[in-house]
Amino acid sequence: MKLAQRIGHITQGGTDGWEIYYRTRDMIAAGERVLTLTIGEHDIGTDPAILKAMYDSASAGNTGYAFGPGNQDLRQEIAARVQARTGVPTGWDNVVITPGGQAALFAIHMALLDQGDRALYCDPYYATYPGTIRATGAEAAVVPTRSAEDFLPQEATIRALAQGAKTLLINTPNNPTGVIYPRATLEGIRRAVEAEDLWLISDEVYDTQIWEGEHLSPRALPGMTERTIVVGSMSKSHAMTGSRLGWIVAPTEVAEAVTTLTTNTTYGVPAFIQDAALFALRQGPGFEEKIAAPFRRRREIAMRALQGSNAIRVIPASGAMYVMLDIRATGLSGNDFANRLLDAERIAVMPGESFGAASAGHVRVALTIADDLFEEAIGRLAAFAERATG
């Protein structure tokens, strides 16, 4: 007996890029002290008030099937939030609730792509992007970016690769780089997708973590509302990673297609989790700012610690819970730097190579441990890089 070929197609025989994370986990299990800056997980739990709302809803009996596109009250709340932030008219029927942002990405690509289609995504990328595309049977085609251009995708590059493509996936604020796409970049993307007749899928799960400049959703650009699908999530904005609640905002035909798919896959998100998400969203922007505040502080700690370094160049980290460091001056690859740092200093970071070829020679640092521990880690990392360069 054999497995379906699609499973091998998802990874194409490669690794998932998380070897450092697995190695770190084993070291910690063995009792070693490791300062872990690998994954985008908050160092606080979900707020007790949100957990109480979840408990109260479940205790009231909201534990049955919840198939379909989601509770209308929650969809309306998300629609109103999106409209207030972007100025784009958005109705509850444009919103579908999904079990997290990853499920939203999978559902969108399944709804838009057929076997053999071509789908574009930008490098560097969140680790699941190519596999998510390949899971549909489509070809995942990478749009390379350059460190010297702050990893911003260029219009000409997109257009040169768009022959036969159907979709383009972008992520702003960006994981792994922390870069926010400025208006000029988004305008170039708009021109490219219009000229090549592409659907644009915009992953905006970090939209509440803005440190410099502003976040502009491409859905708000002229002519883009009907060709853009936005992914959102409670994971980063409300520290609800394990609750698995995300959404898409899309034209109604796409929302209906995704609803058909979820009815035959996930069967919806539990009602008590939806009720907790509704409660959380109604706490307003102040609550979201409180969740984001530690990452703002730690980003400043990193910028101070690395200022003037001869060994490290910091990619402008305008948002999200990461900083991307160019360590090519050390002469090491991202993989070698991360492994040697773990061996020598017991500090774990993700190699840039885990996120694609464009970020080779870089490492990603997650801003996800307490301020004092983060200051210790980033200082020791900087000293390690200087020694390696010297």
Percentage of residues in DSSP E strands: 5-15%
Largest sheet: 7 strands, mixed
Major sheet: order of its strands?
2-8-7-6-5-3-4
- Residues in helix, %: 40-55%
Report the end-to-end length measured between terminal Cα atoms.
Answer: 56 Å
- Here the CATH topology of the largest domain equals Aspartate Aminotransferase, domain 2
Task: Please state the structural category.
Answer: alpha/beta
Which consecutive residue ranges, at least 5 long each, have pLDDT under 50? none
Helices and strands, in order, run as HHEHHEHEHEHEHEEEHHHEEHEEH
Task: Provide the residue-averaged pLDDT.
Answer: 96
CATH architecture of the largest domain: 3-Layer(aba) Sandwich
Using the coordinates above, name the CATH class of the largest domain: Alpha Beta
Q: Could you describe the 3D structure shown?
A:
The chain has about 400 residues and is α/β, with parallel strands linked by helices. It has two domains: about 5-45 and about 285-390, Aspartate Aminotransferase, domain 1; about 65-285, Aspartate Aminotransferase, domain 2 (3-Layer(aba) Sandwich), CATH 3.40.640.10. Helices cover about 40% and strands about 15% of the residues. It is built from 13 helices and twelve strands. The chain has helices at about 5-10, 20-30, 50-60, 70-85, 100-110, 130-135, 155-160, 185-195, 250-265, 270-280, 285-305, 335-345, 370-390, and strands at about 35, 95-100, 120-125, 140-145, 165-170, 200-205, 230-235, 245-250, 315, 320-325, 345-350, 360-365. A seven-stranded mixed β-sheet has the order 2-8-7-6-5-3-4, sandwiched between helices. Strand 9 (about 315) and strand 10 (about 320-325) form a beta hairpin. The longest helix is centred in the last third of the chain and has 22 residues, at about 285-305. About 50% of the residues are buried. The mean pLDDT is about 95.
